[in-house]
Design brief:
319 residues; alpha+beta; 2 domains; 8-stranded mixed β-sheet
Length: 319
Amino acid sequence: MDANIINNVNESEKQTEIGTYQDISLLMDEMDENLLIEVFNNILKLSSKPAESMEFKCVKWSHLKSKKGFQLDCDRVEEEGSRMTRTFIPDLEPVSPSYELIGFLDEFKETHINDCEASARVVIDAIIKEAMKLTGNSPNRKICLENNVSWYSEFEKKVLKHEDFIDYTIGSDKEPTCCLLAIEAKREIKKMKTHFENYEEAIRQSIGYAASLAKLRRKAFTLFENSKEETPVFGAISTGFSWYFFAIDDDVVYSGGPEIYINHDKNRKFYNSEGLRTVLQWLVWILKTMRNISPRSPLEDLTIDLKRENLMKIRKCFK
């Protein structure tokens, strides 16, 4: 059995404790949403053939582009030169960081050495929370730490199971099918071209995470809503002070351009940091976008037509 069959879970061969897909569709009106999600996840875990384990950090571009598995178009991000070109160009709105965040970053620089992933997460936590405050706290946007995700691919006639814990996901629930943003934390290093440790590995790893979320959401839409309508999924890698953004839509990976560095002035203060404002602009835009396209949005007026209209506007950002 190849990776596509495992991921798609052939309905004629795979059964759950309550029956086949057809049985599920008949019972949907009688089952609550949490039970449906549990059933769906159990189906995905079924496999008639053992797969070799491969962590996402070991994924190569050839795995991401494989026609049996991730099936991604990586032309806009695979080469460092092409990655520097922005093919994901959202309409960012001006934002102003709070004095609390600025003060926190000022103090952090005075008291911490940012040379490990743990210290990076301290800064990432503060910046994500600031972005969430700027967009208004919402029940469909929750931070989940160390969220487990898995996906199968096939390469050189081997079925590979990629499974790992994403440092940060944001969505309506911890279920990967509910998440639209994945963030990978990395240790900061000082190099000429980048501040990320193992930069190329980090790019592939985070794209693998986001792609898994996108494909799991696709399966959920197909099973639960009888629809193949898709939504973009967003990703980032960050050292706390350095950020790189990208998006995946319809199996195409789009680059947010060069990494954004949160700089300070000569006195090591962040009040006038253009990088800080830019990072917050990106996160605010993504969080607002999630609210406008999420099927679990609390907005009462998020009709199917309005959701599709919002999706059309978002897709104009992809080049």
